[in-house]
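Q: What does the assembly look like in three dimensions?
Context provided by user:
Components: two
Sequences:
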Amino acid sequence: MADYQAPLRDMRFVMYEVFNADKRWGQWPATQELVDRETADAFLEEGAKLAARTVAPLNREGDEEGCHWSEEGVTTPKGYKAAYQLYSEAGLTGVAGNPEYGGMGMPKALSAQFDEMFSSASLAFTLYPNLTSGAALAIDAHACEALKSLYLPKLYSGEWAAAMCLTESHSGTDLGIIKTRAQDNGDGSYSITGTKIFITAGEHDLTENIIHLVLAKLPDAPAGPKGISMFLVPKVNVNKDGSLADRNQVQCGSLEHKMGIKASATCVINYDGAKGYLVGEVNKGLNAMFTMMNYERLFVGIQGLGTSEMSYQSALEYALDRVQGRSATGPQQPEKAADPIIVHGDVRRMLLNMKALNEGGRAFSTYVATLLDTAKFSPDETERKQASEQVGLLTPVVKAFLTDIGLESCVSGQQVFGGHGYIREWGQEQLVRDVRIAQIYEGTNGIQALDLLGRKVVMNGGASFKQFAATIRRFIAEGESDEFSAPLEQALAKLETLTNELLSQAANDPNVVNASCNDYLHAFSYVSYAWMWAMMAREAQARLSAAAQEDDFYQAKMITARYFYKRLLPRMEGLLISAASGTETVFELPAEQF
Amino acid sequence: MADYQAPLRDMRFVMYEVFNADKRWGQWPATQELVDRETADAFLEEGAKLAARTVAPLNREGDEEGCHWSEEGVTTPKGYKAAYQLYSEAGLTGVAGNPEYGGMGMPKALSAQFDEMFSSASLAFTLYPNLTSGAALAIDAHACEALKSLYLPKLYSGEWAAAMCLTESHSGTDLGIIKTRAQDNGDGSYSITGTKIFITAGEHDLTENIIHLVLAKLPDAPAGPKGISMFLVPKVNVNKDGSLADRNQVQCGSLEHKMGIKASATCVINYDGAKGYLVGEVNKGLNAMFTMMNYERLFVGIQGLGTSEMSYQSALEYALDRVQGRSATGPQQPEKAADPIIVHGDVRRMLLNMKALNEGGRAFSTYVATLLDTAKFSPDETERKQASEQVGLLTPVVKAFLTDIGLESCVSGQQVFGGHGYIREWGQEQLVRDVRIAQIYEGTNGIQALDLLGRKVVMNGGASFKQFAATIRRFIAEGESDEFSAPLEQALAKLETLTNELLSQAANDPNVVNASCNDYLHAFSYVSYAWMWAMMAREAQARLSAAAQEDDFYQAKMITARYFYKRLLPRMEGLLISAASGTETVFELPAEQF
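A: Here is the predicted structure of the complete assembly.
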């Protein structure tokens, strides 16, 4: 495992040079006083140090040790508590929080970079503070003033942590059938009873209190998803002055044994008449969850990117160091017994796939982050609305594709190591095990695909998609034509044809969305990355002669852009065909003949 | 995890109905007395029972317990020794062994089915007897009569086990640089000194002796791969009467901690002047290894298939049982809270991918097995030679593609389970961890791709490929035209165009083979599977009306064939483009700019 180094140069490239994030911060009233490029850079450097020096070194041992359950509670692996302290002290838990309650109010385009760094350093670790940030987002958006002022400052400071409690053993994707019940106590509080499973960071020893956001049903609630309410349930009850009172009826029944992220406590949580407080309106719990879902799903996508970046850094170090065989064009290091394996085309293919997909993914996730910022901070209502719609369209893409590609890239990084990639001490196999969860949780990637094609494309007759396509066409039209203009235009046109075809099929066949959504999402993703690479190439080309000392950086961008177009974009061809092939082959086989 | 059931009906379908293996057995002098359909079927049923009842139940616990190292040796998990006894007693270790020395002389088309069954039941377990079979194959082909008669009977009976010892810490793919040394003792024996790593089944408690086949260099050996010799090194020395003598200087230094196949002992083995015996000729050790490599690589491919079959069986059971959400066409089980998830198109997509790829893989690996049998048993020299050449061409394909697809399918099977797929107790995640090794060992899949495009296609000017294409064309011409004839012909034509393009590029550019081999192998594989599906569909169609009681089986074949052509074969389109895109994008980036 290489020593992790945050790709700060590339992060700044996408933030400032490609998306001009700093210019937008300077224009928006809510951010112009809080953040500029200098502040952001200093912050990034601090975060990068913390990720590399404090968190990354815990990752391997945390995987071996795992978490420990006892009746008294859950303990995290050695070193986690101290690292969590430092993370909190750096202000990172509340980095994007509401400044009215002690948050730092930073834009997502910036905090997305921290999400990546800490996912690279240790996915299992970063889930603890990020679950807290996510829950704080929901509380900030939906809770009453009393709850906000009581809980948010301690969550932003990292003094308390939080967890999101949705899944039950019989109810994962289908939350409409949850059984956890809430009873009105008549004193402004509710009594919550039920069992939740797969609760990340539901119980641990990092903080003195853990705030659970729990989905439950009131006795008279309508059946299905429209009868779900959200409750704030603290592990330890809280007095009005913020001090801790008695223990609430919240217990961790056991920890799950998992494939990876073993240092992350995945808990079964029992609520036995636990005291809770309504967040938002009765029966509107799912809406409250959806508010934060775009942020959370972007974060999960970035987990795929971060893990894959770590895998790339290690695989690259190994490929430069490991000597085995000779270059096809003759020995490159004749003085050694063999050449470093980076001379071999197939090793380069794996590394370049990872590099092109990581950098494309970094641009894409940062783009979605800038859209979230525009939707939140822009004073222009039309701009806010448009950005919000595009966030809705692109969020399932960023969640599913970055995590699918995250697995692919971690597997490639492991493959570069050969047999050593399969051995635990090298760390590459852990990345594969860790990243695998990101395709599953926060809505499986199948659910993301369904969300994209069903809710975001078909349900609005392709309107959001048209806006997306128009934005790409505007990009093409605004610049001078270059080597990527025509291929990008062609790829987009193919995606438009597919979209229209599926819109038309969906009008007659209710099964088509579910049968074609996965292929559609992947085709959509390759076009999105092609756009990202065309944008990056345009900026790199413009700076190539101007910044001679950085020629290598920009030259590498041009070469990698070409690699993406020649070697990765063609993957969409097969997807276009299979996505359009109708539902008959998918639904013809009766269940009993499988 | 479902209770494993060997897919006997499908195995018989490919063996007898598609490839007429039983007819060939009846024609060949070496097999006609030994095996017919009835014997084979009885044998298959016995194997299926053993796999399902004895071996499969050990798989989960073996993963949790792993192997144990001490100075005295390595112990396998609870239950392994008893299961190994039963496996040996069933005659399976020597099932394909030379009858002159106690082997059963069964054809590979039959024993390949056992390889699949036991890989499904427990990949970690099945490596022990299969390493023995593989080593016995090399001894049978290359050792002198004295060694053969001393060692083969005890290996075939399972009384002793064996291991293949190639890799050293600095030398994996590149065996030319091994450092293990052999010194002639002048008494017909050699003294072996060195350290080998990643030695599967190098040390364990299943048998009283373990026979190591070790690659080493004599003092005056030429540098590189042409200076490697193979030695038989027993863990316990053997007297001339076959009884055990003193302990040889062979020690297991440690066990590797791995991602998966944890119940398989992966050993560091130290040879400290161990007594060994030359197998085959001096400096021809690699040739001796290559003899058995086609068999071993087919077996590794089948490991991908077997693991994936187990994943499919479990995922299917779960998809029929788990209720979540409603069918897009309205509730299918309105009396329940939700429908079984097999109603959802995206779940069906995952299951059908697995089904179509497993059944295609079973046909393809059985086809390669029949070629191996023809190459070994046919009395016609021309037929033997042609079969042997096709084995050479298709072996890297079957090894790499079935294991790449094995990972994909195990990941799909895990995904069907949602969050439960990530939890160890369900067993789906173990399959992902276990199957991953098959892409790495016995020559990484990159090495397979290089072997295919470099050695098997470019080096003979495409001659073997032309024969392969001619065989497919003959198949198309011999049957009545059906719905698969034209698409198969088109896919083949595209692969021919790509092959010619790469042959022409390779004439001028030494890098093209290494840069394009992976995409080429995958395109080649999809065409191969398309051929398999066309063959299976033709046989199924012919039997559809004739065998009304089996209509469901044959109908499912037709539907799955259509699914493959519509939804999976299109994947080759992108591969054709990227494989032909030249080497510039792969080699342009200097190593220091990655």
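Follow-up: The longest helix of chain B spans residues 285-321.
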